[in-house]
Amino acid sequence: MSNIAIFGAGSWGTALAQSFASYGHQVSLWARNIDQVAKMNDNRVNAHYLPGIRLHDNIRFTADVNDTVGVDYSIIAVPTQAQRQFLADHRDRFSGQEPLINVAKGLEASSGKRLSDIYNEVLGDVDQRYVVLYGPSHAEEVGRNMPTVLVAAAHDEALAAKVQQDLMNENLRLYTTDDVTGVELGGALKNIIALAIGMTVGLGYGDNARAALMTRGLAEITRLGVKSGANPLTFLGLTGVGDLIVTCTSGHSRNRTAGVQLGQGRTLDDVLAHMGMVVEGVPTTRAAYERAKELGISMPIVSHMYEVLFNAADVNQAALALMTRSGKSEQEDYLN
Ligand SMILES: NC(=O)C1=CN([C@@H]2O[C@H](COP(=O)(O)OP(=O)(O)OC[C@H]3O[C@@H](n4cnc5c(N)ncnc54)[C@H](OP(=O)(O)O)[C@@H]3O)[C@@H](O)[C@H]2O)C=CC1
Ligand SMILES: O=C(CO)COP(=O)(O)O
């Protein structure tokens, strides 16, 4: 059994803590808010982020990152836009040898960068310690030990295999890959499509529109991914089509929920102010839009999402513009 530190006691960090603790691992769950730590200690529940679940006795709570030195694995579940600063603030804490497992899904809005790039920039070259653990997985289910299948991606295949061997349990199956780029892009970009799908729900569009958005969204994700050096097959896997399906179809999804509210006519500021949880697809839309421009890739859904989110474009007009693009060949258009 392993000693695991999890940084970020939002819904995902807490759910993973519960899953690992339930199967015998010792988990330290770090939150920045000392009052939240005290409440979790007293009540053994994360009332805001994962209500209704009694947290396992193998989890200890802390607000001190240095209280977690010497663990076998550090798992970082702080939202994407906060990770650069979080790592910089605690650079010494992360200067050890243990694997660093990132579970946040997104691209940095200010730079368009993937999280593996940010880790290397802030902590020095940590490619040999870096793992990304993604897949179709809502916290509300993982926290209740409902069957879930993820992918551990690492440049060092032996490290991915060690994570698989150490952390897999009967309700959390892990696959491995060395395609860090593909896994990071699939996990980040599906949130944009889930926002778009939510909008179609809010607008009263039908199942046909949603199936089309998922399929053509996957084409855009694959296009950006392949141009960035990813293996195209990764986008047919758990962290591509798998995560796209769960996020676009589940009532648990924060991105889809935000999209529904936007489709119903609420403003972005209002939706984000009342969500109470992170909506990664919003900043990632900005990042993906800029990356697509830099790389010269056509990403029409992402471009229209950018206009709707940040330039107050009308969502019905955006849908019409997508429907009336010039005719294309499906296969020829897939990677071009
Ligand atoms: N929820 C899910 O089902 C899944 C989420 N993910 C990914 O995990 C990541 C975290 O998401 P999730 O747990 O859902 O988010 P939540 O909104 O549930 O929680 C966010 C957590 O991050 C903390 N936080 C916010 N800003 C900072 C900061 N600057 N420094 C340190 N901590 C900070 C919050 O603390 P505070 O309360 O003090 O603000 C809170 O504990 C996201 O990238 C998401 O895409 C991946 C798979 C599944
Ligand atoms: O990544 C997720 C599911 O795999 C969570 O998606 P949301 O952030 O939209 O809830």
From TrEMBL:
Chief localization: cytoplasm
Domain Glycerol-3-phosphate dehydrogenase NAD-dependent N-terminal: 3-159
Enzyme Commission numbers on file: 1.1.1.94
Domain named Glycerol-3-phosphate dehydrogenase NAD-dependent C-terminal: residues: 179-318
Domain of life: Bacteria
Active-site residues, record numbering mapped to chain: 190
Keywords: Cytoplasm, Lipid biosynthesis, Lipid metabolism, NAD, NADP, Nucleotide-binding, Oxidoreductase, Phospholipid biosynthesis, Phospholipid metabolism
Pathway this chain belongs to: Membrane lipid metabolism; glycerophospholipid metabolism
Record's subcellular location: Cytoplasm
Sites where the protein binds NADPH: 11-12, 32, 49, 105, 139, 254, 278, 280
Residues that hold sn-glycerol 3-phosphate according to the record: 105, 135, 137, 190, 243, 253-255
Catalytic activity: sn-glycerol 3-phosphate + NAD(+) = dihydroxyacetone phosphate + NADH + H(+); sn-glycerol 3-phosphate + NADP(+) = dihydroxyacetone phosphate + NADPH + H(+)
GO MF term set: glycerol-3-phosphate dehydrogenase [NAD(P)+] activity
Listed PANTHER family: GLYCEROL-3-PHOSPHATE DEHYDROGENASE, GLYCEROL-3-PHOSPHATE DEHYDROGENASE [NAD(+)] 2, CHLOROPLASTIC
Family: Belongs to the NAD-dependent glycerol-3-phosphate dehydrogenase family.
Role description: Catalyzes the reduction of the glycolytic intermediate dihydroxyacetone phosphate (DHAP) to sn-glycerol 3-phosphate (G3P), the key precursor for phospholipid synthesis.
Protein name: Glycerol-3-phosphate dehydrogenase [NAD(P)+]
Highest classification ranks of the organism: Bacteria, Bacillati, Bacillota, Clostridia, Eubacteriales
